[in-house]
Each structure stands twice: as structure tokens, then as C-alpha cells.
Write a structure and sequence with these properties.
Shape: elongated
Number of helices: 0
Number of strands: 9
Strand order of the largest sheet: 4-5-7-8-9
Helix content: under 10%
Structural class: mainly beta
Distance between the termini: 47 Å
Radius of gyration: 17 Å
Length: about 100
């Protein structure tokens, strides 16, 4: 095994790579680096998403329709179906967005 020169270039948990895809084949025995992967779209325009609306210590669940695609950690524009309000939230999982109010 090779020594790790810069730990932030590598993944330390399998959970962390869940929403990534390989850029190309990886040779056997080579450590997986973040640069070997790219984020995949977890939010697709028009496909309903679960919203977690957060205000201080209070969290409310809802649903909405994204107006754009989004990858993990990106901000996306969401239309609240009940109020027709436009919100901006952070992609936190597949079809899941967190909105700080």
C-alpha cells in the first residue's frame, strides 16, 4: 500500500461516495481519490422532492417541484406545491432538499 500524502484528496467513508460516479476505470490496488469521481444529479427538474424546512430548532417536512437539476451540496430553486412560493434549498440526498428559513 502507498502512503497517503494529502488525506483531503481521499474518501474516508463509503457513505461519502454514495452520490458520485467514476470518471474512468480505476486500476486494481490504486486508492480512490476524489478527483477520480464526479457528482451525479440527485434532483431533476419537474420530479417531486421532499423538503425539510428548518427555522431555528424547528424542522417541518413538505414537498416541492425543482425548477433545475442539482448535485449534492448545490443550491436549487424549488416551487412549493401548496403555496406556489419559490424557495432555495440545498441538495442533501436523492430527491431531498433542505431549506433554511
Amino acid at each position: 500500500s502507498k502512503p497517503v500524502l494529502d488525506p483531503k484528496d481521499y474518501f474516508i467513508s463509503l457513505e461519502e461516495i454514495r452520490y458520485y460516479k467514476l470518471n474512468s476505470d480505476l486500476a486494481k490496488g490504486i486508492p480512490l481519490k476524489k478527483s477520480n469521481l464526479r457528482k451525479i444529479d440527485l434532483i431533476k427538474p419537474g420530479a417531486p422532492v421532499s423538503l425539510r424546512l428548518i427555522n431555528g430548532g424547528i424542522s417541518i417536512k413538505g414537498s416541492g417541484i425543482p425548477l433545475s437539476s442539482g448535485k449534492l451540496g448545490e443550491l436549487v430553486k424549488i416551487k412549493n406545491q401548496k403555496t406556489n412560493t419559490i424557495l432555495y434549498g440545498k441538495v442533501v440526498g436523492e430527491n431531498m432538499v433542505s431549506v433554511d428559513l
